Q: What sequence folds into this?
């Protein structure tokens, strides 16, 4: 999934090219769906978020500017904000209807090497284990500070501090 | 809070993208996007880096009907899905499981819509021309004021470039066991599109659905819903609606 290929398609999408939109969906929807599913833990809700995201991508394709991340990270932003909105407004169904297979796959893939040449990967590895775990929980599961507290069983102030310091360390590492 | 401090803006942007910036703080920071370009720059910076982490996840294919729903919503699909079993529109995949009742739901929607003309509520809406040449995303593009039968203002709704700002007055009855939900009623006759569940007090922002600027809107509507919002993607009990009038 090369950035240049996606950028080429996105420019066509911005010009209203429907086949390009179909192709963009075909190439990227699995990645975006995995992000939504990981956060929402519910297939129906994740597919609802996916629909909203691709409708948004169609209308906002010309908003993407090179130099502000890759096309794929831009698209991930759109699905994550949609999923976060759904979590905030409690629109996600409470019951978890994901099969154990999918859940274990989602958990396993979080730490799998992506194969992308990404700096964040190395920088995350340099964080304290606790900072890395707190940031991972917030990022991949869409958890608030308080929800991370429930998972890690440490005081709220400690969790906030881990995340804040972890992000500061990340920024320092990314700037090098 | 000093939003001129670059370190503070960067820290807030990081937690905004991560998702740990919540509630009023998130709303305030989102509002800052419209007036502080450094906020936008920092958000883009963190999006470009943090979202690389998502590439660790193995792709999982969604069900096939999702693309067909998207194509339907975007108006790509004409006859190719008519008569098929594919559930369409509404943005709610939950209707996939209920698609046999979709037509019934549409009748219910239009039953309340056609009955609105006789509603006792006093509704006032003013739409400001979108063609005014102002470039700020904080510019109010349109607004609606929804009042009750006693002319008491309940909600004042400002439509901005990317968000919808809602101010709730003290005249809005508190519903401890229900929520109010805001909807777009498309002029095309398609099913209403949810804007979001509304807080019952104060001022808050909702994300503006992408359809808002891309379809003809007949009205905004407020419905009474079970806690958490509509269970089936359609309004349950419409209380008020406002017909937008271009000026």
A:
């Amino acid at each position: 999934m090369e950035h240049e290929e996606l950028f080429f398609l996105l420019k066509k999408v911005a010009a209203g090219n429907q086949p390009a939109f179909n192709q963009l969906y075909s190439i990227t929807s699995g990645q975006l769906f995995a992000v939504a599913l990981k956060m929402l833990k519910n297939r129906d809700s994740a597919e609802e978020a996916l629909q909203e995201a691709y409708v948004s991508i169609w209308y906002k394709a010309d908003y993407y500017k090179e130099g502000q991340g890759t096309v794929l990270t831009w698209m991930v932003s759109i699905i994550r904000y949609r999923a976060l909105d759904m979590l905030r407004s409690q629109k996600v169904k409470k019951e978890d209807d994901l099969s154990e297979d999918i859940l274990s796959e989602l958990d396993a893939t979080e730490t799998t090497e992506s194969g992308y040449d990404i700096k964040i990967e190395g920088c995350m590895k340099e964080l304290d284990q606790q900072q890395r775990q707190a940031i991972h929980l917030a990022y991949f599961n869409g958890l608030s500070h308080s929800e991370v507290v429930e998972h890690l069983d440490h005081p709220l102030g400690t969790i906030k501090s881990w995340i804040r310091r972890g992000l500061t360390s990340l920024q320092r590492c990314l700037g090098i | 809070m000093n939003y001129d401090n670059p370190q503070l803006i960067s820290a807030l942007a990081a937690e905004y993208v991560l998702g740990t910036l919540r509630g009023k703080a998130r709303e305030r920071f989102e509002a800052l996007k419209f007036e502080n370009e450094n906020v936008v720059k920092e958000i883009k910076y963190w999006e470009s880096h943090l979202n690389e982490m998502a590439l660790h996840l193995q792709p999982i294919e969604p069900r096939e009907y999702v693309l067909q729903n998207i194509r339907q919503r975007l108006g790509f699909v004409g006859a190719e899905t008519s008569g098929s079993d594919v559930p369409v529109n509404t943005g709610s995949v939950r209707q996939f499981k209920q698609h046999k009742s979709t037509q019934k739901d549409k009748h219910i929607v239009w039953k309340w819509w056609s009955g609105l003309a006789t509603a006792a509520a006093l509704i006032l809406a003013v739409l400001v021309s979108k063609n005014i040449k102002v470039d700020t995303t904080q510019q109010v593009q349109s607004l609606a004021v929804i009042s009750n039968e006693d002319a008491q203002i309940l909600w004042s709704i400002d439509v901005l470039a990317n968000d919808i700002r809602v101010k709730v007055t003290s005249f809005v009855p508190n519903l401890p066991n229900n929520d109010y939900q805001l909807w777009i009623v498309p002029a095309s006759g398609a099913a209403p599109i949810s804007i979001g569940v509304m807080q019952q007090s104060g001022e808050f922002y909702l994300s503006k659905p992408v359809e808002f600027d891309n379809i003809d809107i007949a009205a905004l509507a407020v419905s009474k819903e079970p806690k958490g919002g509509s269970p089936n993607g359609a309004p349950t009990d419409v209380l008020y609606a406002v017909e937008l009038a271009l000026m």
The CA atoms of residues 59 and 69 of chain A lie 19 Å apart. Chain A touches chain B through 75 residues (CB under 8 Å).
